[in-house]
Structure to design on (185 residues):
């Protein structure tokens, strides 16, 4: 196959070809895996790349996490199917990204500080999202008098709010601690 020569701004096609061939930009990986690999591989460059946009990066980390937590919580309307799929998919993506990483130990060191808080927060949001299907199953099996108990829905809302709070802490750790860890290695 003949290669087409092109240029983007001041980049030559060889620079772009190198990026496409690198592990972070492999085309055969799903989009989210590519973005995670790009994040992991760029983490060593993190303090220099994002220092002038620190607040924007903090907000982006928080919004991404809140979006996933909301997907987990709203999964109650699909009777827990989308919640289960989202939980498994997130674990799969992180494992797949780590398997494609050039330095797995370094990648794990970068992920662990915020993952300690983030993973339980996602589990908590998933548990809150699975509460509604659980209540419906209990009602249909005759173990409960009402379809949805008010106390159960309040508990679910509190779990989700606490999960969002934990995700805020995880986002802060990812934006503040991860760059320090990356620059230490």
């Amino acid at each position: 196959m003949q290669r087409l020569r092109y240029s983007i701004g001041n980049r030559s096609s060889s620079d772009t070809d190198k990026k496409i061939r690198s592990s972070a930009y492999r085309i055969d990986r799903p989009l989210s895996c590519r973005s995670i690999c790009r994040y992991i591989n760029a983490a060593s460059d993190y303090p220099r790349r994002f220092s002038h946009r620190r607040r924007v990066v903090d907000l982006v980390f928080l919004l991404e996490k809140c979006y996933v937590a909301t997907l987990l919580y709203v999964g109650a309307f699909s009777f827990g199917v989308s919640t289960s799929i989202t939980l498994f998919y997130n674990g799969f993506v992180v494992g797949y990204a780590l398997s494609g990483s050039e330095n797995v130990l370094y990648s794990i060191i970068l992920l662990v500080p915020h993952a300690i808080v983030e993973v339980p927060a996602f589990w908590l949001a998933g548990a809150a999202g699975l509460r509604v299907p659980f209540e419906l199953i209990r009602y249909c099996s005759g173990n409960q008098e009402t379809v949805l108990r008010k106390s159960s829905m309040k508990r679910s809302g509190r779990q989700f709010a606490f999960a969002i709070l934990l995700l805020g802490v995880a986002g802060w750790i990812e934006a503040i601690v991860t760059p320090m860890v990356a620059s230490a290695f």
Summary: The CA atoms of residues 5 and 33 lie 28 Å apart. Residues 30-184 form one domain. Helices lie at 13-21, 31-42, 46-50, 54-74, 81-99, 104-140, 150-184.
